[in-house]
Specification:
Largest sheet: 8 strands, parallel, barrel
Structural class: mainly beta
Helix content: 10-25%
Strand order of the largest sheet: 21-22-23-24-25-26-27-28
């Protein structure tokens, strides 16, 4: 492959006449720089210089996470997944600009690079950015060659013990090249708010920053147009402005949208603001598009959170940024899939734990109607790990906060900014000073949203006044204290910023039901009764939230399992001989690392979702236990459930009428059993066959679920989530791999090794099975099923349309095939 990429650039003048189709085709100023990079892991002296020989480096396409390739190593830190997240990595990219590009201005934009990034163009030092979650940009213009080659070089030096979870390593988010004329909208240069909204009309307030990089002042007109999803203009405004040479000018406009469609979690309606800069010759010299929503938010001490004037409990999850087997490398489809799975559980809010998220996550939250707590930091000056952000806080925190807000503030999904998570400064008498400074920074860039922070030492945070310095105090794992906090501070509005932290493994059931710290299997029962000492089972938080409707809601730890932090199996922490090896990822998720829901997912769904549902557990393969009582739990949002075994009714139970006794952690109810009204329980003498739960609402059957005793594994089955994907080299199909008996029943105890073959216009991107305690590689053509399931992730090939043939085979089982299609847009 040639190392040179010729960049096709927009012409310097665009048609002035407004046309919806012209605006929709927004290729005017920004294009992807993800293709055609070369990568080297290790030190490479002089690699920033154009003449450095890189022909033997590995060709990669961004986003790229070098650490996810492994291998897992028992000597490495389990907090970060026992993966090689540290070291030095170099990236280089060659490209050519035509002579006709002279007079244009070029900026390279990184959505994020992990971490301690340093960037050069043609050997010229552009600068760096230490925080791996910050987006940043550099002006390339003074150092470019026209009609000849250019080379971008990026050096990353992530450190060990820099994170409490898996951060990834590399240029793991997208990279862009922006090209404009001298007069243009600045980087992140529009700010859109909707200060007044009624059914009849909405005021859209806009601030536009216009830059002039030319040698003389420029007289331009800034035209702003609001268009609806169909491309129809619904509001327009314009102002003439003079922009000084090498300067910037802010233009403020107020537009009125008649009969606005409001953005809501159930109706995520998005408008687009199109900003055009028109020069003295009446040519459009820049066009900038920004999606936004018209909505109102309020936080009321009596009513809680109000979206468009309507009370809404936050049914949120905390999620780290990794995408399971794909690592930290951003992928649009993988991001969308995670959010779709969460939405189906009734989740309406995401906390970006504990860092600014990818732009793609916010884009999908906007589109799908998910609220967002956008979080900045996991630490301030006081370190939690030796090489964490505390090393850079004093120098970089203001820049990181301002850039975060300016990048993200037009997203209607974002309802609050978090200044930090479980910050050690809670215990310092002067900690409030830092909280006050950070809140002021957020308010300076966006006064329309409140700040919050996640306090886990509530008494200290209150005593030392950190809780006074945020607009909405958040508390981690304190449901038993909500009422007292509100009594002591009646003017406060509060929420559970991190809740539950129950741990479990998908498909694992250990009898009798009991709470324990660890198990030799390195798994944890899916009866959902286990939580670490600081935490508790979901039922405790449900009860607290139900009793206090003015508490804004909760953010569960976590929606998905994530790489690293395999609580409680930390063992010797990298000693190399730990009895807890190879546990290397978390058990906290209501969904496992592969994206398969655990039973706990359905417990939350039964409380949060309006769609009729019922879920029964455990599996029904209990060989050798005939006649013994098996605890059967049922989760439903119906009024009543009837349980059947082999067609015989085992009776009906009404929801909330027969509380279930459950073990809990030591910080809840003095460690004694609690009674949960959110579950139904039967003791069922085991007999092979079919266990069926039927849910009723108002006496009418609304949902059913069943478990069948499976026979011996007989076949593999493939279930793609999508049969057609885009032929762009980035789109994915997530293929569920099932081990079934001859009748098509899932074999819930199967652990067969499955081998994959993918040919045609696709390739294997990764494999997984949701097992938190395995060192099988993610980049492989095989995977052992975990409790009957595995996952194959298939990607398209860039620019190659056609059929993708998938085959899965396992020794002694009938093979399976699936046909996918890669299609060009």
């Amino acid at each position: 492959m040639s190392r040179c990429l010729f960049l096709f650039l927009a012409i310097s003048c665009l048609p002035c006449a407004f046309a919806a189709d012209a605006v929709q085709a927004n290729g005017d100023r920004r294009q992807s720089l993800d293709a055609g990079w070369r990568f080297y892991k290790g030190e490479a002296d002089g690699a920033e210089q154009p003449g450095f020989p890189d022909a033997q480096w590995t060709e990669v396409r961004l986003p790229h996470d070098w650490a996810i390739e492994g291998p897992f190593d028992p000597k490495l830190n389990p907090h970060t997944g026992a993966l090689p997240i540290f070291g030095t990595g170099w990236y280089r990219k060659w490209f050519t600009l035509p002579e006709s590009a002279k007079g244009r201005y070029f900026r390279i934009e990184f959505d994020g690079a992990m971490s301690n990034a340093h960037v050069w163009i043609n050997g010229h030092d552009l600068g760096g950015r230490p925080y791996g979650y910050s987006s940043f940009a550099f002006d390339l213009t003074p150092y470019l060659n026209y009609g000849n080659e250019n080379v971008i070089a990026v050096r990353l030096t992530p450190e060990d013990h820099s994170s409490r979870w898996y951060p990834g390593a590399g240029i793991y988010r997208n990279v862009w090249l922006t090209s404009t004329g001298p007069e243009a909208v600045a980087h992140w240069g529009t700010y859109i708010t909707t200060p007044a909204v009624t059914d009849a009309r909405a005021t859209v307030a806009v601030k536009v920053e216009v830059t002039n990089q030319g040698p003389a002042e420029a007289k331009v007109t800034v035209q702003t147009t609001v268009i609806d999803p169909a491309g129809k203009p619904v509001a327009k405004a314009g102002s003439a402005v003079t922009v000084p040479s090498k300067g910037i000018q802010t233009v403020a406009e107020s537009l009125t949208v008649d009969r606005p469609q409001r953005w809501d979690v159930e109706h995520p309606y998005l408008y687009t603001l199109v900003t055009e800069v028109v020069n003295a010759d009446q040519n459009v010299v820049d066009r900038y598009r920004e999606p936004f929503g018209i909505r109102t938010i309020a936080f009321d001490k009596a009513q809680g959170f109000l979206l468009n004037g309507r009370h809404l409990k936050l049914q949120g999850v905390c999620n780290h940024h990794d995408l399971g087997a794909l690592g930290a490398a951003v992928n649009r489809r993988a991001t969308e899939r995670q959010l779709q799975i969460m939405k189906a559980a009734g989740v309406n809010a995401i906390r970006t734990s504990h860092n600014p998220p990818s732009p793609e996550l916010l884009e999908y939250c906007d589109r799908m109607g998910l609220l967002v707590m956008d979080e900045a930091f996991d630490m301030w000056r006081i370190p939690k790990v030796p090489n964490g952000y505390s090393k850079y806080f004093d120098e970089w925190s203001e820049r990181d906060v301002r850039d975060m807000v300016r990048r993200d503030r037009n997203h209607p999904s974002i309802i609050m900014w978090s200044i930090g998570n479980e910050i050690p400064e809670q215990s310092r008498a002067d900690g409030w000073e830092v909280a006050k400074r950070l809140t002021a920074l957020f308010h300076a860039e966006d006064p329309t949203r409140p700040t919050t922070a996640a306090f886990n030492i509530s008494d200290a945070a209150i005593k030392n006044r950190l809780a006074d310095e945020v607009d909405v105090p958040g508390f981690n794992y304190k449901p038993m204290q909500y009422a007292q906090i509100l009594k002591d501070h009646p003017e406060w509005v509060i929420l559970g910023t991190e809740t539950a932290s129950a741990v479990s493994s998908r498909g694992v059931y250990q009898l009798p039901i009991q709470k324990y710290e660890k198990d030799p299997s390195l798994q944890l029962t899916s009866y959902d009764v286990i939580a670490p000492p600081w935490a508790y089972i979901p039922d405790v938080e449900f009860d607290a939230q139900d009793k206090l409707p003015n508490v804004l809601g909760e953010f569960v730890w976590t929606g998905f399992d994530y790489l690293g932090e395999p609580t409680p199996y930390f063992g010797g922490r990298g000693a190399g001989n730990s009895a807890d090896w190879p546990a290397r990822s978390s058990y906290f998720g209501m969904v496992d690392l592969a994206g398969f829901p655990k039973d706990r997912y359905y417990l939350y769904q039964s409380v949060w979702s309006k769609t009729p549902m019922v879920h029964v557990l455990p599996h029904w393969n209990w060989e050798g236990k005939a006649g013994e009582n098996i605890p059967v739990m049922v989760y439903t949002n119906g009024d009543e459930v009837e349980l059947f075994l082999n067609g015989k009714s085992l009776g009906r139970k009404k929801r909330f009428s027969e509380p279930v006794e459950l073990p809990v952690g030591p910080n809840v109810n003095a460690g004694k059993q609690i009674m949960s009204k959110y579950r139904l329980l039967w003791q069922v003498p085991y007999a092979p066959g079919t266990l069926k739960a039927v849910a009723y609402q108002g006496g009418r059957q609304v949902a059913l679920d069943e478990r069948r005793t499976a026979g011996a594994p007989a076949r593999v089955k493939l279930v793609p989530d999508r049969s057609t994907i885009q032929a762009d080299g980035d789109d994915l199909s997530f293929v569920t791999v099932r081990i079934e008996d001859k009748d098509g029943n899932l074999c819930p105890l199967a652990h067969n090794l499955v081998k994959f073959d993918v040919t045609g216009a696709g390739a294997i991107r990764a494999v997984d099975n949701g097992n938190a305690a395995t060192v099988e590689p993610f980049h492989a053509d095989h995977r052992t099923a975990f409790n009957g399931l595995a996952l194959l992730i298939v990607s398209s090939k860039a620019g190659e349309a056609g059929s993708i043939h998938v085959t899965a085979s396992a020794e002694g089982l009938a093979s399976a095939t699936a046909e996918l299609t890669a299609a060009k847009q």
